[in-house]
Amino acid sequence: MQPSPIPFYLNRPLLFIVFESDTFIIGYLLLMWCWVIGFWFFPFAVGLGWAYGKAKATFPRGFLIHGPYFLGLIKFAGYPLYFQKRFLE
């Protein structure tokens, strides 16, 4: 059996314009939030977008979604709560 290359859509992120999809969605939502609240919120939105991009580049993949799990704010399906210490065998 000959090895075959991994298809394009599995090893490259989906891009909108020049941004990855999650970065584009964050920026779009912040821009819409500025439009609804008022453009005095714009510097804060730019700062949030910059912080998200910096955190995404700094931490490993999946770290940002696990942050709320570590704080006990969300629960992953099939996983125990983060603070659970005793388990049945």
From TrEMBL:
Domain of life: Bacteria
A Pfam family the protein falls into: TraL
InterPro entries assigned: T4SS_TraL
UniProt keyword terms in alphabetical order: Membrane, Transmembrane, Transmembrane helix
Transmembrane segments: 25-51, 63-83
GO cellular component: outer membrane
Protein name as annotated: Type IV conjugative transfer system protein TraL
